[in-house]
């Protein structure tokens, strides 16, 4: 129940972030809904087709479609008010990546995969919706340039598997891992921490 | 038989549309054939891997490969004459999306999915070959900016499920849904109907 | 054993080529490792999800992850020295595409697919890691513009199926096909052979 509520909040936040990007690119209504859709379900879809859990999650549960359509409609109608909601959106988004990381790890565990692969699946679930959104909008994915949040997902995943040595209860582990992702993300943004760019050569400054 | 002929015509039209885009981008022969290929089979491939019907359609039936190679060769050889064929190409293309929509819905029904998911699969089958073509050519997908034809696919899909309450024969339903897609697309182009852009703000005219 | 060593060398070369592209785009550490990863495993992943072999290869064997992380770390640390290694890297890369072509053909044969589809799978395995790398970096894939190496993979694949009429031993066939790919690629680069661009019209010179 708790998980489902957070899952829905995460889906809403991701869908709305897609709407904002799509409207900035001046896409039509169809483009906006598709971008909202892939941002919200893209990561889970990629996870499911790589692991072989098909039909993929959003095809098995129609709730996703309803939530995404409702969020998109809301975001389009209230697009001028959304800037006042930026803080709440950021919070939803962050809670969403925490949960999506945990959902991805769970999928890997069920398929009997190696812990590192489970962590990769968690990160993929949380982050690749945004990557696909950026590819469809013809941008270098934001995540590759300045985001700490994939790193937060990875560290949350490591926390899960480190604590598994000491804790038996899977649900506790999931809650703790999710919280680690969320707290790291919040701290990273608050203190403007980001990964260093690995420039090939500092003086090659041409684009 | 009828379906198969139209499927082949659709494949031809989609492959040729890929060739035209790839040649405009000055790709080499390999690039041209790959773009022709993904335009023709990309939508169906995405549908099949999401639903879990694998190997995907074009791997199970070698006819697709022959048709696409032949169409590409034809389009490259007669590239200067193709502009006189634009009207026929547009007609093939439109018939193609009508049929592809129906094929996608059918895949969803066979997998026992929700009507809305079936409609999404139909639209995906008809439209995402073009989306992948545009991504590989480093363009914002045309479909997200000014095309009515995804909307035609969606409305055709709804027609299918609405009429299912009254009509028992699946074949009739498929023919009607396909015709709805085709007619809507033709009318949209004839009367220059398109979806409104959802600009975030009219005066943010930068970019 | 021989195959495994070459597979690892190929993975290393592909991962390093990803690192070089990502650093040129000034991505952060996360972007660099992801691009290295998709360059190395992208082609095989696409092959596996289209054929339905899931979880995909790199999820079943953790060696890939270790090799890629080690290669990326190496490439980042020694980024200024890497230019002196260009020749060796090119050789690894070329050996890699030879082996990857063969691995893709084998996957198709195991799934009972048509020879032409097997050749497509071989080419995809060898080349699409680079395609995904370029898409994520927001470039028109290099392979579509001036590369002979996809053509080398295709010709190597045809060699496999032509010789199958005369040779029974699958291992010999694989070695010969791999060598054909490698030799063609080396010759193409040495003699600067490339496929002709298929311009739509020589005097339409606008972009």
UniProtKB/TrEMBL annotation, chains A, B, C:
Main location: membrane
Residues passing through the membrane, by range: 6-23, 30-50, 62-78, 113-136, 148-166, 172-191
Membrane topology category: Multi-pass membrane protein
Location of the protein in the cell: Cell membrane
InterPro entries tied to this protein: Gly_transporter
Keywords from the named record: Cell membrane, Membrane, Transmembrane, Transmembrane helix
Annotated ranges, domain Glycine transporter: 5-79, 91-164
Family: Belongs to the UPF0126 family.
Name the record gives this protein: Trimeric intracellular cation channel family protein
Organism: Winogradskyella vincentii
